[in-house]
Amino acid sequence: MALRLDDKKALVAEVAAVAATAQSVVAAEYRGLKVSQMTELRTKARKSGVYLRVVKNTLARKAIAGTQFEVVGKSLKGPLVLAFSKEDPGAAARLVKDFAKANDKLVPTVVSLGGALLTPKDLDRVASLPTIEAARATLLGLLQTPLGQLVRTVNEPHAQLVRVLAAHKDKLGATA
Predict the structure, then answer these.
(1) b vs e for 59-86, b when ≥16 Cβ sit within 10 Å of the residue's Cβ?
(2) How far apart are CA 11 and CA 81, in angstroms?
(3) Which of 20, 31, 100, 122 is the most exposed place for a label (fewest CB within 10 A)?
(4) DSSP3 helix / strand / coil % (the chain, rounded to 5)
């Protein structure tokens, strides 16, 4: 079913708005997937904060023009589904990677992160990026380590003195 001009303009505006704020994009060929599989993919995308849309390549090129994903435009060939990570840079890559494991008909073709065009082989690298929560936990751990070492260093002379006095007391108690 062909889209009317107004529908095309609305679709381009919607995808452009998402692309302007997205962290990364993954394009994957979906030829051969059943409707139930696409529905499952869309459900997983919603749960993981990924904007997933099947868009004609000419409309997708117009939508991503002027965004950091403009480099992807020339690589859009064939029936593709675009997955934009809204908050977590690796979310779209994780979604496509995990879904492609169970459904070999979903084939990633383009990955873009930070305005750089990456190959489909780089999907694993992007998918392995930590989530926001994991990155915060790592940062917090890195900040706590020096403080913990400082506290132990400051307390060590006192602890050493206590151990020496206890050993001396035990020695005096043993001789008496």
Answers:
(1) bbbbbbeebbbeebbeebeeebbbbbbb
(2) 14
(3) 31
(4) 60, 15, 25
Both tokens assigned to 101: 């494991």
Token pair 């997937």: residue: 33
Q: How far apart are CA 151 and CA 132, in angstroms?
A: 29
Q: What is the pTM of this model?
A: 0.71
pLDDT digits (tens, 9 = 90+) for 72-111: 888 888 889 999 988 888 888 899 989 989 888 888 888 8
pLDDT tens readout for residues 16-54:
999 998 888 999 999 988 999 999 999 999 998 899 999
> Long-range contacts of range 137-144, CB-CB < 8 Å, 24 or more positions apart?
none
Structure tokens at 33: 């997937």
CA atoms within 13 A on the CB side of 143: 6
Query: Three-state DSSP class for 29?
Result: strand
